[in-house]
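*** Protein under study ***
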Amino acid sequence: MSSAIWSVDEHLEDILGAVRPLEPIELQLHDAQGCVLVEDVIVQIALPPFDNSSMDGYAVRVADVVGADEESPAVLTVIGDIAAGSAGLPGGQTVGPGEAARIMTGAPLPAGAEAVIPVEWTDGGTGGGAADTMRAHRAAPEGAGGEVRVHRPVEARAHVRARGSDVKPGDLALRAGSVIGPPQIGLLAAIGRSTVKVRPRPRVVVISTGSELVQPGEELTGGRIYDSNSFALAAAARDAGAIAYRVGAVTDDADTLRATIEDQLIRADIVVTTGGVSVGAYDVVKEALSSVGDEDEPGGIDFRRLAMQPGKPQGFGSIGPEHTPLLALPGNPVSSYVSFELFVRPAIRALMGLQDVNRPTVRATLNTDKALTSPSGRRQFLRGTYDAEAGTVTPVGGSASHLIAALAQADALIVLPEDVTCAEPGMDTEVILLR
């Protein structure tokens, strides 16, 4: 165990200096959500790939509908129907003078046509109203027939989606470093990409320790409490972009914990434990991992004290043949969660290959009726609610590290620096945004 007191920044720098981005892999689109691109994606086709109609209506020549109105409609001969998914007019017909083609939304604009007249601007063609006619031709969109009366003129290219108006061949679709979400998957599919090269989502194994822990839903007996940390940290890992595996609470037995961690390494890119890292008689994590790093096993876990509150006791190192990073967090719920946000979340984001690994921070005015105290020489992280419109942050709950109800109400962490022992109302302070 390190005897020196580490600063928050030194501990984080040590972690990020040891964590390397995961190796890229090629994934199918449906498996790539949440992953980070490792190469630019260049468009190979135009999108849309052809001029097409943005409306149900009639493809026409502009000159044929000049001056058209309700009193003097332009009367055009309907030469055929074009459905979405078709190649155009049968036989490669061209819309000539005095002619029109019925066209559905998304259907290709036929040769000769310059614009699309919405069906609402017409009588719908021979045999019925506009809505009735378009419904009928959606059901059976084949063949020419009759005339259509157009009641309004139209400009060239009106209601036409131009080929390449979204993206063109050679355009940059997505830049390396982009996180793949639903819109990005939609774009990749639209330009014909079925796979993409990404860094996979990190696999995070969360293990809580303590013989006093009971799983939610089970009966509490004397001296027992529910295991909340493993659920909160697994959820936080997923929120950070990882795949999380939550392991049920391990009793205060060093051999059992050591065996559990070793069993989990096969599916872990990073291991997170909570509890058992302070100086008590049952600090099982320290006991189980203090021997890691001898001549028979690579790596090592360094247990250290940080100049912060909450979360003073911390552990970091690597374990197993693959040097899997392991972060050992305190057991108090607030200490555990704050430690995750400050240290584990950045490590997960670094594994993903992201450049910006930290939560966003802002400056805000402290909104409180009384001064807040902070221990000298420690960086304190208090729970708070941030009002972006007012530019203020309001403390929630006290500073005790077991007050999980207050944590559930907070959306920010108020940061009081090491040299601040008293924060007065109205003071300008740094705020870490959690949501």
Notes: The longest strand covers residues 74-82. Residues 127-131, 135-143 have pLDDT under 50 and may be disordered.
